[in-house]
């Protein structure tokens, strides 16, 4: 039986995956999308959380019943405040037959590998997330200084950095570095603090608000271009270029292709380099090379 994958999705973008898409050297992978009737703004409403989680649980049960091997939670369906990055579902169904993937390791790998060679310091700004924690810890371990300007976010992140690398996480009011790694919640005034020529690299699922393109360079959200052998793919999200797919979704496909059985949900993060090189080996490649 070919590996199968289900990707739940809300109505905040488009995904052109076709059931039974051919995959060279791997026979056929059965891909399917379970659409949840919710828009992005619904996820920000406390009164909607129970209903959204109920819909996701139904999707998980449906995918499990159909024999899916992997279920990628997609984007908004894995929010920490919604379900603890999917941990809620593992606790509810500890013996489910499929593997849940939030895609954190690959999203973080895309961000880290987007940082220009030779960079020795970056600014990390925006709302904290699971991906932000992994990116910061990885950069600190690589001896790259991670500068934060938000005191509250700094104290949230500090305990999550390995002790032998924590000295690379710094709190400054300003910085002259021209590489900023940014998430949602970064307002215009914060962006304008960056020096002219700054490159903004998002770790967020959705693109940041762009202030001045003549002054700054904005990378796209973490994504990879799909292999040419994956057919019937147009745009995965409406802000991404053609044939680019969000890293969180790519991670689910790679998980299925590799036959990995470990969940990546809650606080669990897979080996970032292992997932990155697995994605490359299956024909996915960075959008910068497209």
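^ Assign residues to that structure.
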């Amino acid at each position: 039986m070919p590996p199968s994958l289900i990707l739940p999705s809300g109505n905040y973008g488009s995904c052109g995956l076709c059931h039974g898409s051919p995959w060279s050297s791997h026979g056929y992978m059965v891909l399917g999308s379970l659409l949840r009737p919710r828009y992005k703004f619904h996820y920000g409403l406390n009164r909607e959380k129970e209903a959204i989680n109920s819909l996701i649980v139904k999707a998980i049960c449906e995918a499990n019943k159909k024999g899916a091997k992997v279920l990628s939670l997609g984007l908004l369906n894995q929010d920490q405040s919604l379900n603890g990055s999917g941990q809620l579902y593992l606790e509810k169904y500890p013996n489910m037959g499929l593997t849940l993937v939030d895609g954190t390791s690959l999203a973080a790998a895309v961000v880290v590998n987007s940082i220009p060679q030779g960079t020795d310091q970056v600014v990390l700004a925006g709302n904290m997330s699971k991906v932000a924690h992994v990116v910061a810890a990885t950069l600190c371990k690589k001896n790259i200084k991670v500068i934060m300007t938000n005191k509250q976010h700094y104290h949230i992140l500090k305990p999550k950095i390995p002790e032998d690398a924590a000295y690379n996480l710094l709190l400054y009011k300003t910085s002259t570095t021209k590489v900023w790694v940014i998430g949602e919640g970064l307002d215009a005034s914060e962006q304008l603090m960056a020096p002219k020529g700054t490159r903004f690299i998002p770790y967020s699922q959705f693109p940041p608000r762009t202030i001045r393109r003549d002054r700054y360079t904005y990378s796209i959200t973490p994504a990879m271009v799909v292999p040419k052998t994956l057919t019937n793919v147009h745009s995965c999200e409406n802000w991404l270029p053609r044939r680019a797919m969000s890293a969180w979704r790519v991670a689910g496909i790679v998980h299925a292709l590799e036959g990995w059985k470990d969940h990546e949900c809650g606080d669990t993060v897979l080996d970032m380099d292992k997932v990155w090189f697995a994605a490359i080996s299956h024909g996915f490649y960075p959008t910068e090379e497209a």
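The chain has two domains: 4-101+223-289, 105-218.
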